[in-house]
Amino acid sequence: MSTPGCRENAGPRVLKPPTQKMWKSQVSAARQWLIEAMQRLGYGRIKHLLIINHEPVVDPPPKICPRRKLTGPRYCPGEIPSGDFILKEHVVNLFDELDTMDNGVMAIDVRDGLPCDITHE
Questions:
Q1: Which of 9, 35, 53, 117 is most buried as measured by Cβ atoms within 10 A of its Cβ?
Q2: Helix crossing, 29-41 with 89-100: angle to 10°?
Q3: pTM over 0.85
Q4: By residue range, what is the domain housing residue 91?
Q5: How far apart are CA 72 and CA 38, in angstroms?
């Protein structure tokens, strides 16, 4: 029995490291909003994020579910950069995943302000 949305007998998808640096200013306003939402969240989950034509939809906004660690150091984001900066590999990989989706809904697990896991809902 197969699970909907899963590929049977498919090995893990290996992402190649980006060959070129990607800057925040190079992505759409909706993707910039998503970067900033993840930075503000720190730890938690972004649920019910609608994707249409490879782009996140911010209106209506997805559900932001903060998570708080009970042990270990707590997340203190410090100042969120307001200018242009090079996107980290985690974010570039997320955007590569968006580029493979035409339309759908996803959830993103966020750690230290960066996407770490996604689930197609």
A1: 35
A2: 130
A3: no
A4: 24-68+81-120
A5: 21
Tell me the chain's radius of gyration from C-alpha atoms: 15
Distance CA(45)–CA(26), nearest Å, equals 25
pLDDT at 10 over 70: no
The amino acid sitting at 64 is: I
pLDDT at 11: 52
CB atoms within 10 A of CB 109: 17
Tell me if 91 is assigned to some domain.
yes
**11-34 pLDDT, tens digit each:** 555 555 556 799 999 999 999 999
How many structural domains does the chain have?
1
Reduced to 3 states (helix: H, G, I; strand: E, B; else coil), residue 4 is: coil
H or E stretch at 91: helix 89-100
